[in-house]
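Tokens help. Our protein:
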Amino acid sequence: MNIILGIFGVLLIAGILWDVFETIVLPRRVTRRIRPARLFYRFTWLPWWALARAIKRKKRRETFLGVYGPLSLLALLTFWAGSVILGFAMVHWAIGSRVGLTNHDSTFLIDLYYSGTTFFTLGLGDVAPISGTARVLTVMEASIGFGMLALVIGYLPVLYQAFSRREVNISMLDARAGTPPTAVEILRRHQEAQAMHSLDEWLRDWEMWAADLMESHLSYPVLCFFRSQHDNQSWLAALSTVLDTCSLVMVGIDGVPKWQAQLTFKMARHALVDISQIFNTSPLLHDGIRLSPEWLIELRTQLAAREVHLSHEPEDDKTLEELRALYEPYTKVLSQYLLMELPDWLPLARVSDNWQTSAWEVRAPAADQTFQKCMSKAHRAQPKAHTALNKSQ
């Protein structure tokens, strides 16, 4: 019986150390389904997801969901440490509890206590190894405990740096795409600012963002559970908006080249598909509900009202539908799994951007009116500046 317990302890230690290596050190996605970390997140996320679904108020639900990512990370580290301590305690028990006590006989609880003090390198001295095998195990466990502590110290800064890089572009999206972000609002605001030529550069930046998202979230899947600073923002909503915008540009918009939109679309979809495989979430059937034929007509109407001309050839609607079928099944299933809302194609009426609100203001129409007046004055001043420049020349 002791030999079986010792073998199980060795296997437990080896399995946890390999899981730590794959999760923290190995810079690539691990496709194996049976892993301690994967099982840990599956058995902790499902009840958390169910509790979050029961919360009706959106703000409270988002606060509850926002706790899971950082808390699960700490719980995973605790799970790893506890498993290694338990494994070494099993091995000590299997070899006959070769540790010396001052006042008590050796028991499994004493072995567990000794394993814990050794792992955390406390060195209390009330329990000590009395055989060569026990001394070797002590040195090995102390080395593993010290090494895991060093890995954790280096792991957390890298994790939060990746999170910060992700959130920077999401925060910048607020002023360009509205809150929540939509593809129509992106095109409308660029057209109003007479900056459609800069849309190509904007898509190039988001191609880099999608590539960084894929690399960081495949290496550290826990980042997928980290929520954005605002309740109406998320990395999934931003990715969906970028794909929507690329789809419209690829269908055809006057004055906007298609090449960069194609590159960004490919990179963003690649990231989306690979991230969905982390959770083994199969794509749903494409039902087209997110942009119905009626809403597509309204989309064209709103764009035309802002002098954004979306191509309307006989095959364009079919092309847009085919492009949407490439990514919407994945965004929809991830939205359900992570409880992150997807943005609509059309902007909501009477919604302020995040930069227009504060803790003391529910809405800030005055700020928006002031900003619009400044923009109008700037646009009126442009022709005068060009006229003065021409006269000087």
The chain has two domains: 2-154, 166-349. Confidence is low (pLDDT under 50) at residues 381-393. The CA atoms of residues 167 and 228 lie 7 Å apart. The radius of gyration is 28 Å.
